[in-house]
Amino acid sequence: MSDAMDLEPSLAVQLxxxxxxxxxxxxxxxxxxxxxxxxxxxxxxxxELEGDLRPRGLRLQRHANRVQLTTAPQLxxxxxxxxxxxxxxxxxxxxxETLAIIAYNQPITRPQIDAVRGVNSDSMLxxxxxxxxxxxxxxxxxxxxxxxxxxxxxxxxxxxLDSVADLxxxxxxxxxxxxxxxxxx
Length: 185
Hints:
Radius of gyration: 20 Å
Strand content: 5-15%
Shape: globular
Number of helices: 9
Distance between the termini: 77 Å
Structural class: alpha+beta
C-alpha cells in the first residue's frame, strides 16, 4: 500500500525547493543538472512555479540566464520594517538616468554612458556599484579596453521587476514631441 507521500513531487515543487535553499541566483543549467532534465523541461517547470507563486508572497526573478526565488515587491516595506532595515536609499535624477541608460543598453561602457548623458558619469557609476545595482561585467574589445557595466539582480529587486524584459519599452525621442503635439492640438 503506497500513500501520497511516496510520490515524487512535481517538477515545480522540486524547483521551488532547490531555489529556496540556494542563497543566490542559480543558472538554469545547474537546475537542469540537479534534476536530471533538459533546459526546456526546467523552463516548463519554472513557468508552472511562477503561476503557482503569483497569488503568494514569493516571485521568480530572472537575470542573465539565472533564476532566484525572491519576495514579492509589494512586501518590501513590511519586510524592511520586520527585519529592522532602514528604508531603501532613493536614487537622485542623475542616478536614475545613469541606471536607465545601463539597463536599456547593457552591457555598456562608461564612455558610451557619458556620450548619452553628455557629462562624466564616474561618480554615478561608483554610487550604483556601491549600492549593488550594477556590476562590472568585463572589458570591451577596443582601445583602452573599457569596463562593461550591466545591471544586477539587486537592480531588479530595487525596481520590483522579475526580469529586465519587464522594463517598459523605450519611446524614440521624437515620439515625445509628437505626443506633446497631439496633447496640445
